[in-house]
Amino acid sequence: MSRMSRPPSARRLAAALALTSLLSGPVAFAQYRPPPLTESQLLVKEAETVQVAASAAVASGNKKEAEEKHRKALQLFEQALAIDPNSAAAGAGLGASANALNDYARTAAKLPVLSAANPEDLSLTFPLGVAFFKLRRFQEAVPLLEKVSEKNAPEHLIVNYYLGSYYLHGRRGDLAIAKFQQYLAQRPAKLAVNDYQIHELIGQGQLLRRDVAAARGAFQQAQKGRPESVTAQMGLASVLELEGKEEDALMLVEGLVERFPQAKEPKERLGRMFLRAGNVAGAEKQALALVKLEGTASAHLLLGDVRLAQKQPKEAEAQFRKVLEMAPGVVAAQIAVGKALQAQGRNEEAIKYLEAALEKDGGNLELWASLGSVNRRAGRFQRAVEVHRRLVELAPQQALGHVLLGADHFATGQWDQAIEDYANALRVEPNHAGAQHWLAQALAHRARGRADTNRLDDAARDLRRAFDLERSAAMSRRLGAALLEQRAFAQARPVLEQGVTLEGATWREHWLLGYAYLGEGNAEAALRAFIQAEKRTEEPSDLADVSVGAALAEVELGRVDDAVERLTEPGPSKAARQLAEANLPLMLLRRALTRLESGDVENARKDVDLTEKFNLAKQQDLAKLALLTRALVQAEQGRFAEASPLIKRALTPMPTWAEPNTRALAEAYVLYRKGQVPFARKALAAASKKPSSWQAKWIASLANALHRLEGERAYATGNFKLAEKAFKAALASAQEDAALQHNLACVTYGKRKHADAAAVWRKLESSVPMASFNLGIDAQRRNEIPEAVESYRRYLTAGGPRVAVAREWRDRLMALHGLGGAAAPEANEATATETLP
């Protein structure tokens, strides 16, 4: 047997079993002894014990003992940190005790390196962020506090309050509201009694968002917690102001002043409201009462603003400097000192003062804003731009810097740059009212420049954008005028219709609306608009301008005498006189041509007579148009010998309104009216070689009329072949013309195709009365007397030029039918209807 196949020995088996027993038995541990604490750790442990005692002292209300304990703990933590600079526990304890003692500078000096080395350790991030916040080092504080807020730990509740307050101060309503709501969600039940304060702050945030309903709800919720809360009621006053109910808001605040005579906030608010309303005396009364009640910094600040409004900048400066003596860091007072100095003409001093203030507080956005604005008002535009660009760098997500940059460029007429600045402001704060207003104004200014250089499309585009931003009467007037200049009447009308309904609308909006209606051909609406314009002004020159527009509307309505009476005395306005002289003759001639087209020759002649009463010597083009219109009137009257020379005079030399082929077209028309079809067709062919786009339809119409005339003449002489050719040519361009179809059927009847012609006439009876007359003739031919009588009856009912003949034939047929007597006249030919225009 080999070695490998030998069974294990008993000794080895016993050893294996013993090992198994050992492995399956209970585990025996050696006693654990933690390593000894380092000297730094011992100090931290001792300091933490002292901190616990400090917290207990705070809970019992013993502030003095709590302060002593915190100082002792702080000393121990500093000793521990000196021994071990990397001790996070020592740093966290130091920050907590230093902050409890309001020694934020110590925390800000000791913790940054430790916090950077332990970025996820909130015990370091929290005290350091709070210290930075208390030291107003917001750019460093906010990222740290946001990191703490994200963890949503109940012990860090206060962070959300700090952040909400910061965002509220920065006018970032959405972010502020979110943080305050996070605070309410975390706060313990024992703090619920103070929720009214948070609801008030949420209301302020909703005011920034201009959400009136939400703001009102927040302030009302605050009142539930404290019904007589002055600040909540003042918040409701702000809601009323946002709703445009200034008088109601003023009454509410005045009531607060009466009910709470010792409260300073309502007095200050009422003074501010009086200042905005221009009631400087009322504001002064409140400011003096506030100073007497409690000479606080805010009281003197209000009194200083009152003195500025009273044009007393030196006295205002004294008040503002008093504010700074009482509270050196009040930014509003520093800015106000700059304004007071500038109001005294001390521009350089104002600039240096604000620059000095910025050296002490370089992160203050309001100081940067004021410094740039002071430079702008002093005429130092480049420096203003530099300062406000720095402001944008400091607060890129706020509209303030962009708006002020826009103001700098607006002041120097750099419209493109100003528009870009205000657009950037709206990009970060879409509902910023100031940015919307000034962007609209900048667009309007740029539009004016573009209009002056004949860039009307670009100008109208700018004004459309401006009107979208600012729905005001003035902006509608600008846009409407630009569209009227482009003759875009259909677009101008709705803009001006809205404009006349907006607050501040004047006679001008109604006046322009009248011209928009005129351009669309709505003379009645135009006249109503001009009458409304007359009611809104008493200035003679304005009334004269309106009267011209009304006269043009009256011309369109056929009230020529009223229009002439208006325009014979157009008033003191030079523009009105020029409009009267230029427009009335033109409108009269236009109406004359329209009347000629409809066949009203006599009234067309009267319009030309009225036109020629005006002095047209200085308006050669208008005089030539009058001659041409007179020639066309004479052609319609059959006075062809007088019409042709007038056409030559009117178009030699060629006026600016005429096309190269205008004379040939006019002569072709006169030849047509004379009945000289071949010559008219030849002249029309010459005029048709290079027609303008608007002439094509008229040329086709005249060509069609020549075919009709030729067809009717050929039919009358029995030349059915030529008549058929002419009518078919006319039908080629007017296939649905019932009269032409009827006349072509007459030609067919003349060629003895009676059944075919009668079939066409039956289809056309409802639209061409003469078809019934011709069906009567065909029935007589077939000796269908009752059918013939019925056809004549239908023709008599519809009416037509041969009513007398139809009645005679019907009566004679009825008398002779079945009774004997004279035979009815035999009719062998159909009667064509008149088709000439």
UniProtKB/TrEMBL annotation:
Residue ranges of the TM segments: none
Ranges occupied by TPR repeats: 54-87, 297-330, 365-398, 399-432
Keyword Cytoplasm: no
SMART domains assigned: TPR
Pfam families, alphabetized: TPR_16 (PF13432), TPR_19 (PF14559), TPR_2 (PF07719)
Keywords for this protein: Repeat, Signal, TPR repeat
Signal peptide: 1-30
Gene3D superfamilies found in the cross-reference section: Tetratricopeptide repeat domain
Protein name: Tetratricopeptide repeat-containing protein
Lineage: Bacteria, Pseudomonadati, Myxococcota, Myxococcia, Myxococcales
